[in-house]
Design goal:
By secondary structure, the protein is mainly alpha-helical. The chain contains three helices and no strands. The protein has one domain (4-56). 63% of the residues lie in helices and 0% in strands. Helix 1 crosses helix 2 (29-41).
Length: 67
């Protein structure tokens, strides 16, 4: 069973990974990965979204650690 902390960490880590991919400057096959990452990030939850959700739904989300 996934805990709220594990779920939150997964979403936060995925966002950070996608941001890293989106910053890449190389135009090759990784350019495709970069453009997909940019598209995914467009609607991916931000820290504030998760934080607000955690207040309302603490059984689903945990408040993200501040970075």
């Amino acid at each position: 069973m996934t805990t709220p902390d594990e779920r939150t960490r997964s979403v936060v880590d995925t966002r950070e990974f996608l941001e890293l991919l989106a910053r890449g400057g190389e135009i090759t096959i990784s350019g495709l990965v970069q453009s997909v990452a940019v598209g995914l990030l467009r609607h991916y939850p931000q820290h504030i979204d998760i934080d607000v959700s955690a207040v309302v739904l603490p059984s689903v989300w945990a408040r993200p650690e501040q970075q």
